[in-house]
Amino acid sequence: MPKLFACFMLCLALAGPSVAFASQDDGGEKYAKEVASTLVGKPAPALTVTTIDGQTIDLGKLYGHKIVYLKFWATWCAPCREQMPHLEHAFETAGPDTVVIAINTNFNETREGVDTFRRKFGLKMPIVMDDGRLAEAFHLRVTPQHVVIGRDGRVAYVGHLINASLEAALAGGKSPDGLAGRKTGREGSRGAPDRLTTLDGESFELGVSASRKPRILVFMSPWCEGYLAQSQPTTGAQCRSAREQSEKLSVHSGAQWLGIASGLWSDSEALGAYRTKNKVRLPLAIDTSGDVFRRYGVKRIPTVILVDADGKEVQRLTSDMSALPALVARAARLSPGGT
């Protein structure tokens, strides 16, 4: 493996900027380090997954015997595309004691899109479209996100870049930066919270409403309008439409509104910058853990959900926001005194 690593790094250096860029920090490493501080040294979750080809993989049976390399990625993610040659190389050169699995985040994805991506990049490794369990178990915050599980069944490494630390983890299945054994903060399934705290420090109830007003939840991401304008232009336009309509319709709707941003590739600082840039008046909160997105089964942005005073979902819009005025009118009828 050390010889293979040296050969790969030489090829990487000779390949030019398009490949070398995959080892340069684009801001995602900070999110990976946050995840590493909560996972490295902990026993890896023993989950069973199914690939897009129907193969069942019991991760628990691999732990303690093999190194397991899970790479979270998305078709719309530029650094993921740049790193795909490395992932295919890792798979093709993996020895009998290493298992490589590509985990598609299934966030704004389709099966057809993943199949097309696989053919384009000639991917041969097992591909899993996550149902949310893997993202929760491995605290997904960024794409790509590398997770290496050592032969001892513990998380040995979490990262974002292609670098010597990742290669060392793949070679030995041990943490290369001394993180193994560090105490972590999050244990197992956390469950979705009953409230979120907005950027302004206000508490927003997701369950039963004390005011008896319905709630309109706008699920979004601060990077959707700009970043996806290239890879998924229709989605980018839909996110902009959701924001612009929500700003206008929320003024006299009789409902409580909250914009809920995904924690994938985002944090409170990024969400605050988005609010300032777009002059957003709607209350905004960040779902760092992704628990609220999973609670409502949201896998695409934008998604708008109308929730009644008892916390029950009444109506949902996904992607196409043309029916948003009708949803708001329905919310008005659910408001105290509404007809």
TrEMBL record:
Ranges of biased composition (kind: Basic and acidic residues): 184-193
Region (Disordered): 173-194
Keyword DNA repair listed: no
Gene3D superfamilies on file: Glutaredoxin (3.40.30.10)
Claim: Metal-binding is one of the keywords in the record: no
UniProt cross-references to PANTHER family, sorted A to Z: THIOL:DISULFIDE INTERCHANGE PROTEIN DSBE
Record protein name field: TlpA family protein disulfide reductase
Natural source organism: Luteibacter yeojuensis
Taxonomic lineage: Bacteria, Pseudomonadati, Pseudomonadota, Gammaproteobacteria, Lysobacterales
